[in-house]
C-alpha cells in the first residue's frame, strides 16, 4: 500500500469548509473561521492537497491541518472524516477497513497511541 497518489486531489478547500459546516450544523455549533488558523491552513491545504503522496503522508497532512485549527469547532472531526474517506478509496471490506478508518481518524485527532500509529504506517508501507 506504499502507493503514491494524489489522495486528496478530490477534496478542494471548499469541500473542507462544507464538511465543517455540516458537522457544526448537526451539533448546533457556530461554523466560523478562526482569525489565527484559517488563512494559514487554507494556504497550506491549497498548496499541498493535489500533490502525490503516500496514504500515511495524506493522513498526516489532515492531522497537521487539524492542529492548525482553521475553524472555531470540529476541526478534528472535519479532517478525520476526510482521512477516513481516503481509506474508503482502498476498496477494503470488513474488519480491516473498519480498523483502518478508525486508526486514520485517531491519528488525525492526535489520540492514536504510538503502537497504533506504527500499525497504520506498516499497513501503508506494505506492498
In words, what does this structure look like?
This protein is an all-alpha fold and 127 residues long. The protein is built from 6 helices and no strands.
Question: What order do the helices and strands come in, and which of them pair?
Answer:
Blueprint: H1 13-26, H2 38-48, H3 55-68, H4 75-88, H5 94-109, H6 114-125
Helix pairs in contact: 1-4, 3-4, 3-5, 4-5
List key phrases describing it.
127 residues, mainly alpha, Four Helix Bundle (Hemerythrin (Met), subunit A), 6 helices, 64% helix, globular
Helix count equals 6
Instruction: Name the beta content range.
Output: under 5%
Strand-pairing-aware structural class = mainly alpha
Coarse shape: globular
Question: Helical amount among residues, as a percent range?
Answer: 55-70%
How is this structure best summarized?
Helix 1 packs across helix 4, helix 3 (about 55-70) runs parallel beside helix 5 and helix 4 (about 75-90) runs antiparallel to helix 5. This protein is mainly alpha-helical.
Amino acid at each position: 500500500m506504499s502507493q503514491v497518489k494524489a489522495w486528496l486531489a478530490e477534496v478542494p478547500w471548499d469541500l473542507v469548509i462544507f464538511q465543517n459546516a455540516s458537522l457544526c450544523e448537526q451539533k448546533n455549533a457556530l461554523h466560523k473561521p478562526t482569525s489565527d488558523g484559517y488563512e494559514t491552513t487554507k494556504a497550506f491545504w491549497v498548496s499541498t492537497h493535489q500533490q502525490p503522496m503516500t496514504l500515511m503522508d495524506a493522513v498526516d497532512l489532515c492531522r497537521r491541518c487539524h492542529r492548525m485549527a482553521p475553524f472555531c469547532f470540529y476541526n478534528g472531526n472535519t479532517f478525520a472524516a476526510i482521512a477516513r474517506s481516503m481509506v474508503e478509496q482502498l476498496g477494503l471490506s470488513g474488519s480491516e477497513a473498519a480498523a483502518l478508518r478508525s486508526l486514520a481518524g485517531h491519528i488525525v485527532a492526535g489520540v492514536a497511541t504510538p503502537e497504533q500509529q506504527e500499525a497504520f504506517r506498516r499497513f501503508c508501507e506494505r506492498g
